[in-house]
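We both want to read discrete structure tokens more fluently, so let's practise on a single case. Would you write everything just below, so we can both look at the same thing?
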Amino acid sequence: MTLDELMERNVILHCLSTEMKLAYLVQFSDGDDPYNVRKYPLLVVSQKCYSRYVYIVQLDDFIKYCDTLDVASRRIIWMSHSVRCGSTLWGQIFNSLPDWGVVSESMFAVHTLLHERSFGDLATYGASAEFGELVMAGFKFHISRFTNGQSVLFKVALLDHYVLPHIYRYFTDITVFHAYRNVLPSARSWYNSIIAKEEKALPVDYAYNRILNPNSRNEYLVSEIFALYTQRLATSIEAVNVLRPKGLFEWYIFLWCSKNSTVRISERNGIEVKCLRYECLLENKEKYIRKLFQYLDIYNEWVSTAVKATDQDSQSGIFLSHSERQANMKWKRTEEAVKRANQILSGLGYPGVDSDFKFENTL
């Protein structure tokens, strides 16, 4: 079966392997929209759980096919984000608009970067022309699946600072956002989301390996994940090692710092970033959405549709849903936990755990 014939089917990109020189595509049921963020909040989860078939294509053929796709003029929003900050809700807001498509948490670039290279080689490979070619092929393929010429929002969670420069150079109409939330409610929500009621944390590789690629040969340890995120921070490794998280809540504090460093990394690369603050959205949804739409020149008539999209649990149907989290253990505040969290935050250039944090370039 040729790629042109495959395109007639309901297929999306799963991952690319430079080692095997293969591209893996997965097919959903006919009539089922894998890009429906309401039904499938996280594409990386849904393509593992709900796809019916896997198609394997020679990587060179896949890249050649993607080179023929003319999508450079499409309007693109790139949205990085921290943890538990309403990013999926933003995806569902844009998914409710008739002229927009959303790619929510496709991890093909992460597969390529993490599962093909050692942690120590990430920066070099991430900046390489080879990686850039793979990234562009994958994103062009995703965009091409929106066949009516829609604008596309890419919501990305991991290693975005390696991917964004390649994307930014290609598209003529791209806006970069970063979604975030105050550190304490963000970290507390993430902690409560993945700590099971019997007081056992889900394995680290559940979130950082198997959810990305269940067939991976690699099992990444906490120390390796720590090293990965350390590379994002504008701080020496020696200084960060002093602040190495000793428990799960401390780990989430560190994760919050690391993922929010996307803003300063992008700005150092000459990329303008506008920030979306979850607290601002909660304060007045209609007002904040209207403000965003005015910034993007989206018709005001769609504001009510967008507000309605916020009425339901954005993570419904997966392990992060409200109903799932109700059965989990809740974080208990202690003086020692707050002290350690503040040490990490201060050491990485952020205000204390109880602060009302706001980026200067927040909408």
